[in-house]
Amino acid sequence: MKQPTMSTSWQRILVPLDFSDDSITALQRARDLAETHDSNLVLLHVVEPAFQGLRIQTEASHSEAERMAQQKFQGVMNDYLSALQDRVSVEVRDGRPGDAICRAAEDLNADLICIATHGISAIRHFMLGSVAEKVVRHAPCSVLLVR
Ligand code: ADP
After folding, report:
1. Sorting pLDDT into bands at 50, 70 and 90, what band is 52?
2. How far is ligand 1, taken at its centre, from the CA of residue 120, in Å?
3. How far from 120 is each of 38, 103, 104, 113, CA to CA, in Å?
4. Which end of the chain is more exposed for a tag (fewer CB within 10 A), N or C?
């Protein structure tokens, strides 16, 4: 696991997106930080293994999910990040979102994960959604939780 450092510069900010309104709010906070700190942004969407009855989702439906994520990234880039385009990259990974986000932060040497407290399931009576909670508990770097 990456050792914590005393660095306070946010060179690479990881922004996990489920494309919910909350995740877009977190993206806007990350964009503001990136503008102030000259950071690079990595947008990450994780495609979960879905169970349909007893069948795990097929390769075709999985690549369809990846294709849709790439399309949504394009929309997000156009709508929110046109001023930063050369400093933004996107990734689609497979797995359980909390685990995959923490692994990506480690692989990519991210200084900060900027993530919303809630997402697509919008169950508001929990203080944190399950993905956000997992990231706060297990991230190898600082986490900015955006309400
Ligand atoms: P909720 O239970 O309210 O949906 P989550 O903890 O799942 O809350 O979501 C919190 C945030 O985690 C989302 O706004 C999003 O930024 C991130 N997130 C959730 N699922 C994914 C995913 N599959 N890929 C990338 N980021 C995700």
Report:
1. low
2. 7
3. 29, 21, 21, 18
4. N
Whose C-alpha lies nearest to ligand 1, atom 23? Answer: 46
pTM of the full predicted structure?
0.90
Q: Which atom of ligand 1 is nearest to the CA of 122?
A: 3
- CA 102 to ligand 1 center in whole angstroms: 13
In the chain the domains, ranked by start, together with CATH numbers, are 12-146 (3.40.50.620)
pLDDT in tens, 62-84: 788 889 999 999 999 999 999 99
**Is the CB of residue 20 less than 8 Å from the CB of residue 116?**
yes
**Residue 98 Cα, ligand 1 centroid: separation in angstroms?**
8
